[in-house]
Amino acid sequence: MKIETLTNAVLKETLHKTQLDNGLDILVWPKRGFNKKLAVCSTWFGSVNNLFTDPANGQTLRIPDGIAHFLEHKLFETADGDVFDEFARLGASPNASTSFTTTQYFFTCTDRFTESLTTLLDFVQTPYFTPPAVEKERGIIEQEISMYDDSPDWQLFFRLLGALFENHPVRIDIAGTAETIKAIDVPILKKVYDTFYHPSNMVVFVAGDLDPKQVMEQVAENFERRNYTDRPPVERLFPEEGEAAHVGSVVNRMTVSRPKVLVGFKDLVTANGDPHALLKRELTTSLILDMLMGKSSALYSKLYEKGVIDESFSSSFTAEADHGYTMIGGETDEPDRLVEAVTDCLARAAADGFDAATLERKKRKQMGRFLRNFNSPDTGGNVFLHYFHRKQDVFRLLDELNSIQVDDLSARLSIHFDTGRMATSTLLPVEGEAHAE
Amino acid sequence: MKKTGDFIQFETSNGIRVWVDETTKYKTTLIDVFLRHDLDEDATRIALIPPLLKRGSQAYPSLTAIEERSEELYGAHLGADVEKAGENHLISLRLSLPNGKFIPDEPPLLREGMAFLAEVMLHPALEDGGFQSGALEQEKENLKNFVEGLINDKVSYADEMLIRNMCEGERFALYEYGRVEDLPGINGQDLYAYYQSLLAGCPIDIYVAGEVTAEEVRALVEEMFAFERNGSVPIEPTQTDVVPTQVKTVKEEHDVVQGKLCVGYRTFITLADEDYYPLVWLNGILGGFLHSKLFKNVREKHSLAYYASSSFEKLKGLLIIHSGIEAENYDKAVEVIQEQVTAIQAGDLSEEELSNTLAGLTNRIKSVQDAPGQKIHFLMQQNLGGRSDSLEEVLQKLSVVTKEQIVQVAQKLALDTIFFLAPSKSK
To answer: Which ipTM was obtained for this model?
Structure first.
């Protein structure tokens, strides 16, 4: 086993990396002096991967929305029962999450790490689907979906994505809908499992006060005895998505005490982009947002002092290989005024440019925030995995950050913040509903 | 200087108590300041102070100036909030910032951070001898929106409504963010004078965790938090002996898809009691984990809920069960929840439940040792509750609790209130 060691002098951290012949990546981050250990088994399969070319026969397959999340729930069941029972016996705390792009299974523990790791690797590699269990899970997931139906922020967010994107599956709720999950059955779960849960599409990440080589050997042994056959990578397909926002604005009503609004900008995705260009795009856009909309910005203090916004006002940019978007907003009594202030602010920045001293201060802030991630095995672990999935070297982040100049901000501003790619999502209180108390 | 667990403790010349965890584990230093008051009719005034402190100080006179200073300190997080712990109302100020040794040229960030926190806490921006009126009016409006916005988060709303109904007439029923109707009567001069009386009279505790020494922290606190204090504000104990005479049932209808059911019990046990560790066990077996009775039975066996768990208030002596259910399952869910409590009272605890709970509790407590904020919070609550066990002692004391002790504690539980946030009929 050839182990690569990556070190960063500023962070004073080291990452150990290897790849098995079957394609599995293994990453270990030794964290001396910590009780807590984290292990993640992650597959590059999320809610947006609903269309792909089946490596088994070359055919194109459209699978039901919400299946990645459904599969995540289902894998916790084994022939011997619920794998949670086994983790409970070991005192480990397991969980899983499905995002747009990945499904991750993980646990944290302080004792009995080796046994817990075996339990994790075993259950992820041992699918057990029966029709009655699939039926029962459908009921549980319907409940989960109805919980999200009651969450104003979640609804606001997906209505925005629906307004920005016409066809891209990022517009669909990660869990799907009660309607789409009806189509999920045992054969389709098996097909999806075989396609995406192959070591060449997966990574195992471990953090804690552990010996990297020993951990890697344990993972290698566990995967290698299962005789995976080599196969070409899955080709992920996405529908054609126009450059313009799908619709300009959407307004919905829910039980909220005060209106909420989000302004979104759809990013232009360049096919086969260099992952580090994507990283720089992400950092540059985040700096623009922080400079123009952050808590020390003129816009923020003006709107805050006029009572248009409160502390819930925030902005963020997300860049994936196949989609990207900016979101800006929060609670406000005057959604239209807030949207107008945001667009005016962007237009003014396009005309006036950016201040170099402010940029330097923001870089300091981002640097400190980045450092903070490495305070614990779990937040640090998530950061390592986040960048690894995007094929980005996390240790290059500070250099990329420092290389950004005011001209980069102006160039990026003019490309990304185009009102033709803008949409708004507004949530208003249900008419005639009284406030609590 | 004394030692409590990993913390070195001392008191400043003006009576501020300080605890320091000298550790090399983190890239950041965390400084937590708590000012302690009774939870009482002053709740709204107290809740307004933290947001006003963040609006500006004499050296950093605006929201923008405060934020710019945080950014210069390498993205320091400045937090100011209130917290309810038993019938204590705490003003908490928190600064977390990188340790200078991870920054080029190693700037003296502990000193700069401590100075910034002291500046924000002790020298708020003033106008005519009071808090700035413009800022005050906005923060009143924000607080009003926040209090009314509780309904946006249905889970928290249901929990809060349970407490208000259950503890009606007790100080604990007060919301830590106060009451909207108190806001109009508050002005900047009176509020500032009131804040000065709190700084002088209330107990103040400071906790620091990071790669620092207690000696340097002592010197900095003595230098920067040097102001006159008289200890004139008394603290009343939390009332823990209320016995429910009959079970209250409260239903409220809202436009929600899923109902939220909360069930509140009195435990009559707090941190200081002999029975405290058996209570920790009881909560673990009942609803603290995914292997607990509530999750296993309410969610998995009967498929009644998407979530079902329990938590306990360790200073007030309450145990609360939380679950999300369909409205038509209400009667069944209430029945199955109570069956779980009855089962423990009858001694129906398997070896597996016991060993899983010990493993889960051990995992949680050892994890607290890795998280500076949690570790400080743990110690802060112990200090309020009158206990001084280190995390190692907690583990040791939990390991010797017997099944009989857990059953005895369960038998003391008294059901007090059931609150149901129900989907409205029109839905």
So the answer is: 0.89
